[in-house]
Write a structure and sequence with these properties.
This protein is α/β, with parallel strands linked by helices and 500 residues long. Helices cover 36% and strands 23% of the residues. The strands form seven sheets. It has a seven-stranded mixed sheet, sandwiched between helices. A five-stranded parallel sheet has the order 11-10-9-12-13, sandwiched between helices. A hairpin with a 2-residue loop joins strand 1 and strand 2. Helix 1 crosses helix 7 and helix 7 runs parallel beside helix 8. The radius of gyration is 23 Å and the shape is globular. The structure holds nicotinamide-adenine-dinucleotide. Belongs to the aldehyde dehydrogenase family. Keywords: Oxidoreductase. This is Aldehyde dehydrogenase family protein. Pfam families: Aldedh.
Amino acid sequence: MASTEISRFTVRRPAPDQVPVADLPPVGHFIGGSFVQGSSTEVIDVVDPATEKVLGSVPAGTVQDVDSAVAAAVEAQKSWGATTPRERSEVLSRIADIVEANREVLAVLESANTGKPRSVADDDISNTVDTFRFMAGAGRTLTSLAAGDYAQGHTSVILREPVGVVGVITPWNYPLLMAAWKIAPILAAGNSVVLKPSEQTPLSTLKLAELVAGQIPDGIVNIVSGRGRTVGQRLAEHPDIALVAVTGSVLSGQAVAETASRSVKRVHLELGGKAPVVVFADADLGAAATGVRNAGFWNGGQDCGAACRVLVHESVAEKFTELLVEEVGRLVVGAPAAGDDVEIGPVVSRPHFERVRDALAEATAAGLHAAVGGGVLDGPGYFIEPTVFSGVPAGAPITQHEIFGPVVTVESFSTTDEAVARANETPYGLAASVWTQDAGLSLDVPKRLDFGTVWVNSHLVFANEAPWGGFKGSGYGRDLSLYALDDFSRTKHVMINHGA
Ligand code: NAD
């Protein structure tokens, strides 16, 4: 294992091969409870971003493959939707147990396919287990308006029903966890699902299917691998799909919502983000710098809630930047299999590497100063240097658009009103954080920030009990918590005339 000092952070390469062939999932779509060959022989190669080697391949799904999966899901949902919450809870608990028992193989696959360090993959698996366990319980505690006589001589009963078949489209940054965030509430509410994983990172989702096959009712979970424009598009348009949920970029969300509108399908969108981190003069600057190091660079910054845009009070901007640069300089970059201390892996793919590299070059050309990093590492592998741009002027393009890599910008502000206005200036509205020891600011500022989650003196901490989702360009609909169960079910009012 080579270890060199470059630009102050440590780099560990090369990577030994990680995945034994026997651990790869079967090649095929998972439809009706088993793996089946697709209707086309075309395959998509799946690449390890740390080595650029092909790990395996998956079928490029077709419209016909989606139609077969939807037919299986429609059939399976009839009996699944009629089960009791307790029966569904038992199935979700079983999935949690299966994931837990296979955490090693799932973490290795996830890490090899995405390039994420093992510590991040392990965290993803633990959270996947907890999501299934939470929804196993939450599905048994649904509430609604009390039955009652709200009109003279009539009794109203509010039923909560499954919506039917749900189409799900997931991204590459947390493949298994994002699948769990959807599958768990969708099944808990009595629906069946047809899911398309990202064509770049389908392995862990297909492995989950292999592991649960025969352990859960056939056809309630179906996985069709393939591209967005074929498989994703068909999920958005299929007449037998009642709701389509996308976690991905704004462009993909818009395309799906537009297509779904033709059949007036319900849409659930978890899209991009550009989370501001507002650091007030009275904040614990050391804690804020550590918070940004952790939450800005976790998963290589490829996180929709990443702490990527710091707004710090001008009186402490220099001190804060010094602390942050010091923290980021201590990060260990490398191939996930190169050591347990690796904290930042490669970005997911060559096109994404080129996007991030170009964003760095544009920022530098615009005169921004990289206080640490600012470039890319030599291949093989798609490695970007952990980067902090300091002294970034208000309105710089890099502060508005998602880069989705290990890149943090630092701007300064003078007044609270200015901080709030500038934090809200982005087209996104997913997450933000506020760093202060002032009780008034810690309540007042979050209320004024236009983001679905606002942390105070923290960032990127999740709980299955609390909702996650955005405002504005970050989409609508909620993952996690009882609110996800609301989104994946429908209410029906039954009114009985007993006064006649
Ligand atoms: P992406 O939009 O490129 O792809 C997401 C999924 O959409 C993939 O499965 C892709 O095949 C599919 N897709 C693409 N075009 C489509 C189309 N026209 N019709 C149907 N499906 C289509 O996103 P990505 O690059 O995989 O993931 C990164 C993005 O996801 C970032 O913007 C990130 O912020 C966002 N994200 C958001 C959350 C959240 O909770 N809000 C979580 C994770 C990732």
